[in-house]
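// run 5 | inverse folding | seed 20
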């Protein structure tokens, strides 16, 4: 009995330690599929941090260039630009979605078909200034597929 308690205690402590390190979570990650000659696409997801942090970069073996972008409307003109950082306020979900913030995958290594998985490594800076990397496996959705809610 004592041995089982000891094992449970150790397992509980390990679980707590894992949860304490998990400051940023990503859900609903997906990438828009491409056609044969298309060289760029977007990745979208929801990011939540338990403390103030910033998304400062991204990388993927599926593309030579990966940038965090913002899309805005100004005078009826859609504008897209790379951003150096995207704030991740503590306890708030930041949604990267079409028509807003997103991760741009440029100079794709190959076309992306529905059902493929695209690894995307996000670089996060915590409020303490320390950088960490979080790998996300984003599912490719068909070009015309409706957004899931």
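// decoded
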């Amino acid at each position: 009995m004592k041995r089982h308690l000891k094992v449970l205690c150790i397992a509980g402590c390990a679980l707590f330690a894992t949860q304490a390190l998990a400051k940023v979570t990503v859900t609903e990650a997906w990438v828009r599929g491409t056609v044969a000659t298309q060289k760029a696409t977007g990745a979208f997801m929801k990011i939540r941090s338990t403390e103030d942090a910033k998304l400062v970069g991204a990388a993927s073996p599926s593309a030579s260039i990966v940038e965090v972008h913002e899309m805005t409307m100004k005078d009826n003109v859609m504008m897209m630009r790379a951003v150096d950082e995207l704030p991740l306020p503590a306890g708030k979900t930041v949604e990267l979605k079409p028509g807003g913030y997103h991760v741009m995958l440029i100079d794709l290594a190959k076309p992306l078909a529905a059902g493929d998985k695209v690894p995307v490594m996000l670089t996060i800076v915590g409020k303490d200034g320390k950088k960490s990397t979080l790998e996300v496996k984003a599912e490719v959705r068909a070009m015309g597929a409706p957004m899931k809610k």
